[in-house]
Amino acid sequence: MRVFDAGPVAVDQGDVSLFSDFTDDGPMWAGTGPREVRRAVTFSRPFLGPPSVTVSIALWDFAAGANLRAEIRAAEVTKAGFSIVFNTWGDTKIARIHATWQAIGQVADGEMWDVES
């Protein structure tokens, strides 16, 4: 559980098209074995520290006749942004993926002092 100090807490959210590999026989559609896609996301304004981030699949277009394997997660979370990481492996064929994300964390307000030592 994450507990925030007194002060404002903000929610930022968005959606990202991670890839569309069926149009040009990209690796997620035509490849086999371990495959990974990373997309950088920048928050609309920085948090005071790394926020809690949740990533979900919003659209999943895949081929029938193969096993469905997937992992989606947030990585490298900082106060300014993070990376969405999507992995698949084996014979899975994925045409395209869209993801949604939500970040929750503390932000600065006008009453906070920025004192540097």
Describe the structure.
- This protein is mostly beta strands.
- It has one domain: Immunoglobulin-like.
- Helices cover 3% and strands 49% of the residues.
- The protein contains 1 helix and 6 strands, in the order βαβββββ.
- The protein is elongated and about 55 Å long.
- The two termini are 30 Å apart.
- The model has no long low-confidence stretch (mean pLDDT 91).
What secondary-structure arrangement, pairings included, does this model have?
Blueprint: E1 9-20, H1 27-30, E2 35-42, E3 52-62, E4 71-75, E5 81-88, E6 94-106
Antiparallel strand pairs: 1-6, 2-5, 3-6, 4-5
Which terms would index this structure?
117 residues; mainly beta; Immunoglobulin-like; 49% strand; oligosaccharide binding
The SS-based structural class is mainly beta
Task: Tell me what portion of residues adopts beta-strand conformation.
Answer: over 45%
Q: Sketch the major β-sheet.
A: 3 strands, antiparallel
- What is the name of the CATH topology? Immunoglobulin-like
Show unreliable segments: none
Overall CATH class = Mainly Beta
Give average pLDDT, whole number.
91
Task: Using the CA coordinates, give the radius of gyration.
Answer: 18 Å
For the termini, the CA-CA separation is 30 Å
Number of strands: 6
Number of domains: 1
Q: Strand order of the main beta sheet, please?
A: 1-6-3
- Secondary-structure element sequence? EHEEEEE
Q: What is the helix fraction of residues, given as a range?
A: under 10%
Q: What's the architecture, going by CATH?
A: Sandwich
The 3D shape can be described as elongated
Q: How many helical elements?
A: 1
